[in-house]
Amino acid sequence: MNSACSQLQDDWELYALGSLPDEVQKSMSSHLESGCTECQRRYYDAQMALTAMSHLAPRQRPSANVERRLMQSITAAPAPSLSAWSFWKLVPWAAAFACLVMALWLVHDRKRLQAELAESARNSQLAEQNQKALRDELESKLEAAQQSLKDNSTTAVVSRSATPASPTGDEAKNEAQLRSQLAQALQPIEDKDKKQARANSDQNAILAAELAKSQAEVRRLSMAANNGDRIERLLKSASLQQISLRSVIPQAGHATARALYSPQGGLLLVANSLPKLPEQKCYQLWLIRKGSPAILSGGLITLQDDGEGILFAPPSDTLAQLTALAITDEPAGGSVSSRGRKLLFGAQ
Amino acid sequence: MFNPDQDDSLLLAQVEQRQPDALLALYRKYSVRIFSLLYRIVNDRPAAEELLQDTFQRLWQRPHMYSSDKGPLLSWLLTVARNIALDYKRKESRRAAHLVLPLGGDTGFDLDNLPALESTVDPEVSRAIRQAMESLPPAQKITLELAYFEGLTHPELAERTGETLGTVKTRIRLGIRKLREALLNQGKVLRL
User: Fold this and answer.
1) How far apart are CA A45 and CA A10, in angstroms?
2) Same domain? B82 vs B158
3) ipTM value greater than 0.85
4) Are B97 and B130 in the same domain?
5) Where are the alpha helices (DSSP H) in chain A?
């Protein structure tokens, strides 16, 4: 017996009872695994006494349902194979890679949009300068025309000092002529202004649409990145569990589904070969759990054209009590309580 | 057909080879013992049945977790079951009614042709263990029962019994040792 053994010798009873702090339990487990025969014997003795204590519990028989459920569960949910776990391990990496590619594309696209916006701003500035120059020119012409009109009027008043002040035919003609010249001078400027305004408006509409599209893409990418994080968090959960679902009626065809879940990481369900439903129907997942309520909606399954369906439910304490999952077909939009046909089912 | 008297190590090897009948044989051999303990701890039949199922599912999913250096398979299963039950009790102290899943269909096994549940409870051994427990000083007996069946931690035991932590640990330690000695003195070969 070495010094480590002598330190531990009084604790094997407490270890067998599992009442020591976790780190001490782990340390003693490591010591046992190291092959120390003396300590193994002490532990064995303590274990035997505790096993004997179980005889003190009044004898009870479980119902036959337990045996049936156990057999159903082990045949419905085979132990995860290496290939299956390899697939799941790849999921977060694939999601992360996709997010990286999309993020690079987004950065590139944002730069392009920024350049276009700068170009548009420059164009607007130039157009504004042109408009100002034209307006100045127009105002100057207008002033000149008004001055000319005033000068003509003064001349006419002086020459007709003894007669009533009413415009003669020449004055009216001159005024009309000036107005016409003014209108002609203004027309191309107004046309150009309108054209420029239309062009600016079109450009702004295009840019606004691209900006909206870009923002939508950012939101979608953000959600994808968020889902990637959630999947990674789920797969890293210490309490990760799995349930496999199989079709239970012929109408479900060869559909299968697999769910990974943990109370801390949420639930990810991937279904395959789900038959296409009519438009007024949808697939809904049901969480069957211990406690009350016993059946809860797990959400609607998004179905793709190839019959693959995916659902991600957020982390919840209710997942700690999960015993089984079922997929039913429900009216579009889902049901509060299951009314459709139970198509797939799987228990722990 | 599997014989319940088959060696546990052989049945366990078959469980590792994914033979459900072997698990069923172990279930039929030990479920009464394990269920009795679970029911004693949680005092709720549906919950105890769920926990019994959990215990054997763990054996099916992770048979390699058990190794012979951890003692007999039954001891290990009882330890697993007790841990599950105590976790359950801590987390679900106010548990609502349980769902009993409506399970139909064929399991694919000839359940009727397997041996009936083996009680593995020898009345003589049970009586001997009760006598051994009764031979312990009352304080040791109570402390040991609270620790084993209620899963109270050392501080909780100290608070419940009004003793120091050191006294609680000593009572548990001595209680287990005396229990074992008492059983050996009665000449009982424990069928554990």
Assistant:
1) 12
2) no
3) no
4) no
5) 3-8, 12-17, 22-33, 37-53, 64-76, 82-159, 169-236
Residues B14 and B91 in one domain: yes
pLDDT band at B119 (very low <50, low <70, confident <90, very high): very low
Q: Which chain B residue has its CA at the smallest distance from A17's CA?
A: B148
A250 plus A277 within the same structural domain: yes
Whether A38 is covered by a domain: the verdict is yes
Give residue B77's pLDDT. 93
Inter-chain contact B31–A66, Cβ cutoff 8 Å? Answer: yes
Residue A199 CA to residue A207 CA, distance in Å, equals 12
Phi and psi at B187, nearest 5°, equal 70, 20
Backbone phi, psi, residue A262, to 5°: -155, 150
Q: CB-CB: which of A57, A66, A295 is closest to B37?
A: A57
The verdict on residue B114 lying in a domain is no
A52: nearest CB among B69, B105, B179: B179
| pTM of the predicted protein model | 0.47
Listing DSSP states for B80-93 in one string gives: HHHHHHHHHHHHTT
The total of other beta-carbon atoms located within 10 Å of residue B178's CB is 20
Can you give the residue range of the structural domain that contains B47? 8-103
Check whether A161 has a pLDDT greater than 80: no
Across A125-149, average pLDDT? 77
Q: Which residues of B touch A79 (CB under 8 A)?
A: 18, 60-61
- Whole-number percent of chain A with pLDDT over 90: 6
What are the structure tokens assigned to B106, written together?
């064929």
Q: At what angle do helices B165-185 and B154-161 cross, to 10 degrees?
A: 90
More confident residue, B105 or A22: A22
Q: Which amino acid is at A329?
A: D
User: Helix (H) and strand (E) counts for chain B?
Assistant: 8, 0
Search chain A and give the residue with CA nearest B154.
Answer: A19
Q: A310 pairs with which residues across the strands?
A: A270, A302
Residues B87 and B129 in one domain: no
Residue B185: predicted pLDDT: 73
Count of domains forming chain A = 3
- Claim to verify: residue A47 and residue A139 sit in the same structural domain: no
pLDDT attached to residue B110: 38
Q: What is the DSSP letter of B16?
A: H
How is residue A163 written in tokens?
A: 């007669």
* pLDDT tens figures, B58-103: 999 989 888 877 778 898 999 999 999 998 888 865 544 333 333 3
Q: How confident is the model at residue A129 (pLDDT cuts 50, 70, 90)?
A: confident
Same domain, A228 and A120: yes
Given a cut of 90, whether residue B23 has pLDDT beyond it is: yes
> Would you say residue A64 lies in a domain?
no
Tell whether omega for the bond before A62 is within 30 degrees of 0, i.e. cis: no
Q: Domain span at residue A314? A: 241-347
Is A230 found in the same domain as A258?
no
The answer to whether residue A256 sits within a structural domain is: yes
Q: Which of A235, A270, A299 is the last residue of a domain?
A: A235
A104 and A222 co-located in one domain: yes
